[in-house]
Please model this.
Amino acid sequence: MTGPAPGLVIAVDGPAAAGKGTLARRLAAALGLAYLDTGLLYRATGRRVLDAAADPRDPAAAELAARGLTPADLARGDLRGPEADLAASAVAAIPAVRAALLDWQRDFGRRRGAVLDGRDIGTVVFPDATVKLFVTASPAERARRRFLELQARGTAADPAQVAAELRARDEQDSRRAVAPLVPAADAMVLDTTELDPEAAFATAMAVVRQRMGEVVPPG
Model:
């Protein structure tokens, strides 16, 4: 492929620590597409609510934070970690927050095509995306990866607590009434439990080749 197809949108969904972010960034680089981690929008919203000493489950406070987001909010250094994870999941369950951020995400993807990763890209944000991937892994493997990630950042963590926090996040994301975390009906489910990043990338690129009907050179 010499360049991205106009309007090509690749949706990469899945739970935390499944490898979707790493995969989505690599796909975007290989295909010459813009990349958006949509989770940052919800993390930044949750962080703004916490900064205001409000409850991330409060619809009014969360909507106010979402509508006030700026590019600087997405560049903050405190958008990762257990507190930010739970706050992001809480605000993401609020319909007014999702509505406030929906147009922003769609505009980003439609400018010239993009790879977007999140939890409802293929089901809600871009239900007509050219390629839809749902990246997952076993709970034990995801907890192991998240623990190693925290260790690499120099963040103290207990493996049992990390696993419990992931379970809580999964339950909150999958049971919310608005845009729950589920694979799109036409998504290719990619289980990375036994795959390293190279193998996951190769598998995803094969799906892109199939959907696009042309050969994409490895990148």
